[in-house]
Amino acid sequence: MFKGSYVALITPMQPEGSVDEKALQSFVDWQIREGTHGLVPVGTTGESPTLSHAEHKRVVEVVIAVARGRVPVIAGAGSNSTEEAIDFTRHAKQAGADAALVVTPYYNKPTQEGLFLHFTAIADAVDLPIIIYNIPSRSVIDMSVDTMARLAKHPNIVGVKDATANLARPLHTRRACGEGFCQMSGEDHTAIAFLAAGGVGCISVTGNVAPRLCSTMQTAWAEGRFAEAMAIQERLLPLHDAMFCETSPGPVKYGASLLGHTSEKCRLPLAPCSEPAKRRIRAAMAEVGLLN
Question: Which of 16, 185, 218, 263 could form a disulfide with 194 if both were Cys (CB 3.0 to 4.6 A apart)?
Answer without folding.
Answer: 185
